[in-house]
Amino acid sequence: MFEKIRGLIFKLDPETAHNLAIKALKLNYIPNKTVKKNKILELDIFGKKIPNPIGIAAGFDKDAEVYNSLFKLGFGFVEVGTVTPLKQYGNPKPRVFRLEEDEALINRLGFNNSGSEKVRARILSNSPKGLLGINIGPNKDTKDRVKDYLVGLRKFHDIGDYLTVNISSPNTENLRSFHKDEELDELLKEIQAEKIRLKTNVPIALKISPDIENKNIDRICEILTNNKITTVIISNSTDRTRENLKNINKLEKGGLSGKPLENKSNFLINEFFKNLKSDITIIGVGGVDSGRSVYEKIINGAKLVQLYTGMVFKGPNIVSKINDEFIEIIKKTGVNNISELVGSKNKLD
Questions:
Q1: Which fold has domain 2-341?
Q2: Quick check: pTM over 0.85?
Q3: For residue 325, what pLDDT is reported?
Q4: Beta carbons within 10 angstroms of residue 130's beta carbon
Q5: Element (H, E) at 164
Q6: Which residues are catalytic?
Q7: Does residue 143 sit in helix, strand or coil?
Q8: Which residues, in sequence order, are CB contacts of 83 under 8 Å at separation 6+?
Q9: In the chain, where are the structural domains located?
């Protein structure tokens, strides 16, 4: 069905099409194909068992409106947000651009969301029927970004299965400065101190930029380990990697996501995995749209994967398609569960 109407959808402005998709999910207008469950895909993560490793990345359900509908589509977990303490509009429109020939998107949304109070109330009124992550970030005009992250932690520590600290959006000015040693260490220390004050054990994930320098990976891994961060998400969108793109929209300012990010993401996943081994869970993001792309992320070191752009181009039943393809790939490897494939590109001692 999606293939038949994709041409019509792609005639709409991308943000308008996205808003219509959210409305359709809220009203259950999008038919979902039954996703086959298979024990070979099951994983234990954050104290819960999930049916498969495929999650929807933050950015799709910014305001936590349709996470249960996304679970019905077969996603193993859902991450909502990015949520800021106060409501904000984000950057001026137009701010989302399709690059059809490149199977990519460029966005400069700028953390548009309804604010932490409204999102918290919405989640409390609609209990999640699966593993729910909540992505938190600072308001654009805040005078204290560290404080904004702590507000997010206080608001959501008791209702999220994990919280993601987003320091990597290219669309909030100077946000990526948190990748610097001192700033990152200070932020994570403050978060751990706040967790102690709140008496919470909620897992914290850090979402990093794909544009970090390779020489900085060792130090970032050291800071993650020292601050007891359990998960790293690799990676966010990139404001680089434009030279080989075909679509004229490549000239638009913003974060590039989709297939052009796949190889860069896989490289970073493998570099972090070689450093961290299995001490920290890696969630791989960038170019996920098939069973093969999931397999590549996992053998490079990701335990879980997330997608967003892939669903824009492949449709709402993408999880069913990926699972079928991925199961066939796994059968050929002879393993009993995908956990045995994590990092298998590097035979660990």
A1: TIM Barrel (3.20.20)
A2: yes
A3: 95
A4: 18
A5: strand 162-166
A6: 169
A7: coil
A8: 62, 63, 64, 113, 115, 116, 119, 134, 135, 136, 137, 152, 155, 156
A9: 2-341
pLDDT for residue 2: 64
Q: Is the dihedral of CA 38, 307, 79, 69 positive or negative?
A: negative
Q: Which tokens is 285 given?
A: 């993001």
SS3 label, residue 80? strand
What b-and-e string marks burial along 248-266, b requiring 16 or more CB atoms within 10 Å of the CB?
ebbebebbbbbbbbbebbb
Task: Point out which residues pair with 204 in neighbouring strands.
Answer: 163
Alpha helix (H) residue ranges in 181-261: 181-198, 217-226
Low-confidence ranges of the chain (pLDDT < 70): 1-2, 4, 31-33, 347-349
As beta bridge partners, residue 54 has: 305
In the block, residue with structure tokens 């729910």: 132
Closest alpha carbon to 137 in 92, 186, 180, 187: 187
Is 311 strand, coil or helix?
Answer: helix
CA dist 278 and 283 (Å) reads 12
CA distance 337 to 219: 32
- How would you list the strands of the sheet with 96-99, edge to edge? 96-99, 104-107, 255-258
Q: Note if the bond before 257 is cis, omega within 30 degrees.
A: no
